[in-house]
Amino acid sequence: MAQLIKFKGKFIRICPEDPTHLLQSEDRGKSWQFLYDGSMSMNSIMDIASDENLILLSCNRGYFISNNGEVWTKVMDFEQLKNQPMKLYLDDVRPTPENFQRVYNFDEFVKFIADKGLPNFISFDHDLGEEKTGYDCAKFLVDYCLDQNLKLPEFYVHSQNPVGKENIEKLLDNFNKFKDNFR
Predict the structure, then answer these.
(1) Are 44 and 60 in contact (CB under 8 A)?
(2) Which residue, of 17, 51, 120, 145, has the fewest CB within 10 Å?
(3) Coil vs helix vs strand at 96
(4) Distance between CA 140 and CA 110 in Å, rounded?
(5) At what angle do helices 134-148 and 162-181 cross, to 10 degrees?
(6) For every one of its 183 residues, what pLDDT tens digit does the chain have, with 9 covering 90 and above?
(7) Cβ atoms of residues 32 and 25 within 8 Å
(8) Sign of the CA dihedral running 111, 126, 123, 50
């Protein structure tokens, strides 16, 4: 998720001075107006994201959605989240499958794992439209698991790049074989 989103022709962001408020701009960020005060229901807003129809907020009281930025519906709280398997989708282009959390690039992949820990499942793309690839994400994952003495999560490589797909699969499969030999 991002701190600044574009939604229905407006820019929306978390207020830097008071993270219980959302601000909106209709002039490409030159001036900002109050949009929503979430202090009663949401407390501190941590992250925002959107598609063309909904805004999603992550806050310290759970997740909320809105189709206008003014009226919010709680969709999940953190107690419910503890019992949900966490699935991560790494891709810069394809639509996000249902029940997956999404990251678009290497930096978001690293931040996701640093902030939320290892997901139960990761679906990898190889070509991420930038210098770093899905293979770099897989190498980071292996290093992270080695440093933390953790088992790799289940994974699938959905990339259409056959060489990139094979490289990610071989790296992660070899790491699993290595870990199995030293248990």
Answers:
(1) yes
(2) 17
(3) coil
(4) 8
(5) 10
(6) 447 788 788 888 888 888 888 888 888 778 888 887 776 666 677 778 777 677 877 777 777 778 777 777 777 655 555 556 789 999 999 998 888 999 999 999 999 998 888 899 999 999 998 899 999 999 999 999 988 888 899 999 999 999 999 999 999 999 988 776 655
(7) yes
(8) positive
